[in-house]
Amino acid sequence: MISSRTEGCTLTGALSVTTSVQDAITVIHGPDGCAHHNFSLLHALHFDNDQLNLPSILSSSLKEQEIIFGGEFALEETLSGAMGESPGAIFVLTSCVAAAIGDDVRAVCNEIRGCPVVVIPTGGFLGGGFSDGVRSALIALSELGKGGDPNGTVTLVGEKNLEYEAEANYREVQRLLGLLGVKVRLRFVRNIAVSEIAQLGSSSLNILREESLADVGDLLKDRFGTPYLPSFPLGFEGTLTFLSQVGDALNTGSDRAISMELERQKGIIDQFSELRGRAVNICHSDHMPAPFLSELLELFDLQVKERGQILTLPDPIPVGTSGLSRMLSRWQRVLHA
Amino acid sequence: MMKQIALYGKGGIGKSTTSTNISAALSGMGLDVLQIGCDPKRDSTRMLMHGRLIPTVMDQVRERGDKAITQEDVVFTGYGGVRCVEAGGPEPGVGCAGRGIIATFQVLERLGALHADVVVYDVLGDVVCGGFAMPMREGYAQEVYLVTSGELMSLYAANNICKAIRRLSGRSRGQCRLGGVICNAKNLPDEKQLVATFAERIGSTLIQFIPRDPVVQRAELNRMTVIEYLPGSDQAEAYRLLARNIIENRRLDIPEPLEIAELENLAYDFIAD
Ligand SMILES: Nc1ncnc2c1ncn2[C@@H]1O[C@H](COP(=O)(O)OP(=O)(O)O)[C@@H](O)[C@H]1O
Ligand SMILES: [Mg+2]
């Protein structure tokens, strides 16, 4: 894999998951800086998204002393401090320093009684990058799931808590599921309480936020028998396929939902007919799925030219029909400008 | 001019025994000696301190914080006026002992404790990480002496240390060189010849042969170096010769570590003969 300066550290990825469990405390077993930088980053991003709650993060404050003599005692102290706040759960992330000196974090956490303590062995950069952190957090938190008889609902897995459009994307998926008469039972993990995680494994279908979470989908399938869709809906065609897949998985039938959505899509395509035939130069990230772009080029008969109007495909790419509609209105504004 | 030497070698091979006797012998030559134990085992200077395990630099830092420490807290005077320091470190199995050595050097540096006619660093077995290479770095010990017997495992460790010396000798700030090989005998047949041949092959020289002698254990039971316990013994004389050879040594080499097969063949040749 090519290293990228946009990938960041596992801690940030894992924190994006754990700090979205509202009554939990996340302990970073590492130097204060790891907690400080991530706290600032999360706080600033949440602030941008009009969320004013401060992430509950504690640091075990490793210093040179702990590096030399081992940091297990410092972690113990931090955990008992965290217990004093009576959290619903404590999530423990490890920094690269803790991983390098080989602290036995699980052994320390196993001693704690009275509150679930979940170890997420992130290992700072040693555990990979941001998305590895997200994955290991989801996998670790899934230990709190209790399973149950499939009840016709859906669980969303791995929403991107730091993306600006997270709520809009959720509403879009909710709307589409509504066309099928299906409800979301659990958002794993976004703005939930620890107790809600118990419901993990009781839905009839898991829907992953994106394909890179396939490991998590597989694991949940093995553990609870829940099948999964690999991604939120992307593209016009992709959204219709999404409806049919959910309909198949839950035996709800999807013909009516699909034809309603198709009508809506036609309306949107007409609404942005001004884009038709334009010469454009579309910037996008490297991991953009190719069918998404070719569908747009075809639908609007766009001509790709080096000198064409520069348009940007957002990363991550918009979810569902509504996401496309928002993006197209931005494109139209650019063309008008 | 201050001379700084470091003894490296496999665990249990006799580095501390040899270091304390060298220090004791040097003090007998009227030199001001500082011995620094760089092994979390912290027993390097015990025989100079008549059996006492002195508080370590790392213990003191842990108890008082490194700002509050003075030289008196970490430097202790033992036999013959030799000043003794133990780096210390974590309990086995936790933390990072190598970082402890680095931190110790920072403390000693700040206290201005690293001065003497001769500084003797007694360092743990293998150079397992950068921390244990610290005495060879930044211009601390310019001369490394390898302690080895004729046993393959011990030659193997010595050969590995040559790799570290070779690597560090290339750095502009370090002037670390191999001063020679000390054969601390296990009473194997042709052992002196084997270690001498090894020394030659790596581009160095056998600086002293130290016989294996029960007087070492007797001195130990009496909590003394051999130099103090039985100054008239042959063993004490061997240590004095070693000390003199080291002081007079002008030969400093960048060693050529052997390939494993070469090393094994060498040991095999001697067993077969
Ligand atoms: N020349 C020798 N003759 C007899 N015994 C020796 C000799 N050198 C070392 N020893 C014994 O070997 C043991 C280990 O030596 P030590 O100096 O502690 O090793 P190291 O510091 O390399 O770990 C000591 O208990 C000592 O009695
Ligand atoms: Mg020793």
Short description:
The complex is a heterodimer of chains A (337) and B (273). Chain A has 337 residues and is an alpha/beta fold. In chain A, 45% of the residues lie in helices and 13% in strands.
Polypeptide structure, described:
- The complex is a heterodimer of chains A (337) and B (273).
- Chain A has 337 residues and is an alpha/beta fold.
- Chain A is built from 13 helices and eleven strands.
- In chain A, strand 7 (205-208), helix 9 (214-224) and strand 8 (228-229) form a beta-alpha-beta unit.
- Chain A starts with 9 loop residues before the first helix and ends with a helix.
- By secondary structure, chain B is α/β, with parallel strands linked by helices.
- Helices cover 40% and strands 16% of the residues of chain B.
- Chain B has an eight-stranded mixed beta sheet with strand order 3-4-2-5-1-6-7-8, with helices on both faces.
- In chain B, strand 7 (177-184), helix 6 (191-201) and strand 8 form a beta-alpha-beta unit.
- The longest helix of chain B has 18 residues, at 152-169.
- The radius of gyration of chain B is 18 Å and the shape is globular.
- The N and C termini of chain B lie far apart (46 Å).
- The model of chain B has no long low-confidence stretch (mean pLDDT 94).
- The chains are: A alpha/beta (337), B alpha/beta (273).
- At the A-B interface, helix 3 of A face helix 2 and helix 4 of B.
- The site of magnesium ion has 7 residues of chain B, from helix 1.
- Residues 9, 11-17, 184, 210, 212-213, 216-217, 220 of chain B line the site of adenosine-5'-diphosphate.
Topology:
The complex is a heterodimer of chains A (337) and B (273).
Chain A: H1 10-18, E1 24-29, H2 32-48, E2 57-59, H3 64-69, H4 72-83, E3 89-94, H5 96-101, H6 105-110, E4 117-120, H7 130-141, E5 154-157, H8 166-179, E6 184-188, E7 205-208, H9 214-224, E8 228-229, H10 236-250, H11 255-271, E9 279-283, H12 290-299, E10 303-304, E11 309-312, H13 320-336
Parallel strand pairs in A: 1-2, 1-3, 3-4, 5-6, 5-7, 7-8, 9-10, 9-11
Helix pairs in contact in A: 1-7, 8-13, 10-11
Chain B: E1 3-8, H1 15-28, E2 33-38, H2 57-64, H3 71-74, E3 76-77, E4 83-86, H4 97-111, E5 118-123, E6 143-148, H5 152-169, E7 177-184, H6 191-201, E8 206-210, H7 215-221, H8 226-229, H9 234-248, H10 260-272
Parallel strand pairs in B: 1-5, 1-6, 2-4, 2-5, 6-7, 7-8
Antiparallel strand pairs in B: 3-4
Helix pairs in contact in B: 1-9, 6-10
Bound molecules: adenosine-5'-diphosphate and magnesium ion.
